[in-house]
Design brief:
- Keywords: Membrane, Transmembrane, Transmembrane helix.
- It is a multi-pass membrane protein.
- The chain contains 13 helices and two strands.
- It has helices spanning about 1-10, 10-25, 35-60, 65-90, 95-125, 130-150, 165-190, 215-250, 255-265, 270-280, 285-310, 320-340, 345-365; strands spanning about 130, 345.
- Strands 1-2 form a two-stranded antiparallel sheet.
């Protein structure tokens, strides 16, 4: 009996996604008591770890940069579904939900995930190395998408307020899809070698030398369990969001802080996966995850909310305020200086983390 229990314990990552989805089915749309919130939080954390495990199995099978792309797109698609669901609930606060969530994702990925990955790799291996060609192209795409979709609405005059007119919103949505599709084609087909990890001597690492690749059957099972785990993560995050919202309001903090906390929870699988890759001196994989997630967050969310806005009531506010535009500009400038050399020390990682800390501080006390 004890031997069987131990065997089951070693396979926890198989059962946790199923448990998470079952729990989500029982709790969806209900006001949860404190005990259930505590259980949901534990299952949510376990689902994050399970998602990371299954993402690494899939990544090991398909190789880079496809593995990073699978996790980034999977998380973002479910995140988009969560945003549209929350917007459909209505309310005055839903007008800025898409903007706040996307901007939080950009700041967390470009500063948090990038910063902690560079810092960890540089401390462990003295210098973090990556390919400036591929990373620079990814950063340029993120900068263009962020400017088109989050900055320009503040300055357009066709519609009152920081909103796009219908034609402008359609253009932004189409441009986002085109740019994201072009990047994916570049990353996975035409210039795949630009997005592979490299050694300190600049040699491309095109295979994982730690273990044999899993079978196709194992990878497909992990892909399915990855989807279940991510559904559980995002769904349970929504379930505990009301408790988080009450706590934020009780602490006298702005409602936007809820979006930051939810974004942190949703992006936790990618953060852990990026950190693990960085500790193995695969910094390029970490940057693929970070910038790919930022890009997917904008490139998939804006078209989705643009389509949803045609039947959802209320305005769709996409334009950032002055403070957030300053933080975005600082992030893009610092990211450019980080990417150009293709090498980073702990200093660069620390700078990115300080920018993230400034964003969180200004979110709490605007």
């Amino acid at each position: 009996m004890i031997t069987r229990l131990r065997a089951l314990a070693t396979q926890w990552y198989v059962f946790v996604p199923v448990v998470a989805v079952v729990l989500l089915g029982f709790t969806w749309g209900r006001d949860l008591p404190g005990a259930v919130v505590a259980i949901a939080s534990v299952v949510l954390a376990a689902s994050v770890l399970a998602a990371v495990h299954h993402a690494e199995v899939v990544a090991h099978r398909v190789g880079e940069p496809f593995g990073s792309l699978v996790l980034a797109v999977a998380v973002t698609i479910i995140e988009v579904a969560l945003i549209v669901t929350l917007m459909a609930d209505g309310g005055d606060k839903s007008a800025t939900l898409a903007r706040d969530t996307v901007f939080a994702a950009v700041m967390i990925t470009c500063n948090g995930i990038v910063g902690i990955s560079l810092l960890s790799a540089a401390l462990r291996h003295r210098v973090a190395v990556f390919q400036s060609e591929g990373t620079g192209g990814a950063l340029a795409t993120v900068a263009t998408l962020a400017t088109l979709c989050l900055v320009l609405p503040t300055f357009t005059t066709s519609k009152l307020g920081p909103e796009f007119s219908t034609s402008q919103l359609i253009f932004a949505a189409v441009a986002a899809v085109v740019l994201y599709g072009l990047f994916v084609a570049t990353q996975t087909v035409r210039h795949r070698d630009y997005f592979l990890p490299i050694t300190k001597h600049g040699e491309v690492i095109d295979a994982d030398d730690h273990a044999d690749a899993p079978t196709t059957r194992t990878a497909l099972i992990s892909l399915g369990l990855l989807g279940l785990a991510l559904v559980g993560v995002v769904g349970l995050a929504k379930g505990v969001s009301k408790t988080i919202e009450h706590g934020v309001e009780a602490a006298g903090m702005p409602h936007a802080v809820v979006g930051v906390i939810i974004a942190l929870l949703v992006l936790l699988p990618e953060t852990i996966a990026a950190l693990r890759a960085a500790r193995r001196d695969r910094v390029q994989t970490s940057l693929n995850l970070a910038l790919g997630s930022a890009m997917a967050s904008i490139g998939l969310t804006v078209p989705a909310v643009a389509i949803a806005s045609f039947w959802l009531s209320g305005p769709l506010v996409l334009g950032l305020g002055a403070t957030h535009m300053v933080l975005l500009a600082l992030t893009l400038i610092v990211s450019t200086l980080t990417v150009v050399p293709g090498r980073a020390t702990p200093l660069q990682g620390g700078v990115h983390l300080v920018i993230l800390a400034a964003y969180v501080e200004l979110a709490v006390t605007p």
